[in-house]
TrEMBL record:
Organism domain of life: Eukaryota
Assembly information from the UniProt record: Monomer.
Residue span, CYTH domain: 3-198
GO CC terms, sorted: cytoplasm
Short name of any one Pfam family annotated for the protein: CYTH
Enzyme Commission no: 3.6.1.28
The gene coding this protein: thtpa
PROSITE patterns: CYTH
Entries under PANTHER family matching the protein: THIAMINE-TRIPHOSPHATASE
Main location per the UniProt record: cytoplasm
Compartment list: Cytoplasm
Gene3D superfamilies reported for this sequence: Hypothetical Protein Pfu-838710-001 (2.40.320.10)
Name of this chain's protein: Thiamine-triphosphatase
Length: 213
């Protein structure tokens, strides 16, 4: 139930679609999903770079991973997050992160009372239309996202199972980025950056000043 998501974001245009075709990326379909992100009113989770999400009824928690040793320059453009999808494990981790707060330990798995017990409220929600592609040789997935607040962003992604080879994932993402002709060296804003800037500008500034975004 635990894996590491390694990804690199990029900005895309109509040319990207042509490029995907040229390099033989396999189109694996289009989906639409609604995301809700939760935190305490004081943002205890996101200020610890911990992102609690409900997507189409499924819970997921993204948390920081231990730092890798020496990395190539290209890896600096990638993010790595541990992904937890078991609700029991999510509740335990959230409890740990906000443990200094007065929360109950026995949360019900059966309903959503655990959210109010842990003082969690929805701070962001939006819908995304996603077109997905696969690059067989590199074993990476490429998603092109269009959010409902007029922001589009792409990502090259590898999900590494627990104990798997994160270094190889970083290298394969770099190879795919070269094939796609991604040559920028700047961090690309994710959907959350743009959403928070608009809806929670003070919290956004705080996350930037803490180097979380
Ligand atoms: C980890 C994180 C957030 C949670 C959402 O992550 P993201 O991968 O951006 O969203 P999405 O919809 O592509 O999720 P997927 O379908 O891949 O599971 S929101 C902010 N962060 C931190 C973060 C960061 N510090 N830098 C970058 C470039 N992205 C995200």
């Amino acid at each position: 139930m635990m894996s590491v998501e390694v990804e690199r974001k990029f900005l895309f245009s109509a040319d990207t679609l042509k490029k995907l075709e040229e390099i033989g990326a396999l189109c694996i379909g289009q989906t639409q999903f609604h995301d809700q992100y939760f935190d305490t009113p004081e943002f205890d989770l996101t200020l610890r770079d911990t992102w609690l999400r409900k997507r189409e009824g499924c819970w997921e928690l993204k948390c920081p991973t231990a730092p890798l040793g020496e990395q190539c320059e290209a890896a600096a453009l990638c993010t790595r997050y541990k992904e937890i999808t078991s609700l029991a494990d999510i509740q335990l981790r959230v409890q740990e992160v906000i443990k200094d707060r007065d929360t109950e330990t026995s949360a019900s798995l059966l309903d959503e009372r655990w959210l109010s017990k842990m003082n969690l409220v929805c701070f962001a929600e939006f819908t995304t239309v996603r077109r997905s592609y696969r690059l067989q040789q590199e074993g990476v997935k490429i998603d092109l996202d269009q959010a409902d607040f007029d922001y589009s962003v792409g990502e090259v992604e590898v999900i590494v199972p627990e104990g798997g080879d994160v270094q190889s994932a970083l290298e394969r993402i770099e190879q795919a980025a070269q094939k796609l002709g991604l040559n920028g060296d700047k961090r690309i804003e994710g959907k959350m950056d743009v959403y928070l800037k608009k809806h929670h500008p003070q919290h956004y500034m705080k996350l930037v000043s803490e180097h979380i975004l």
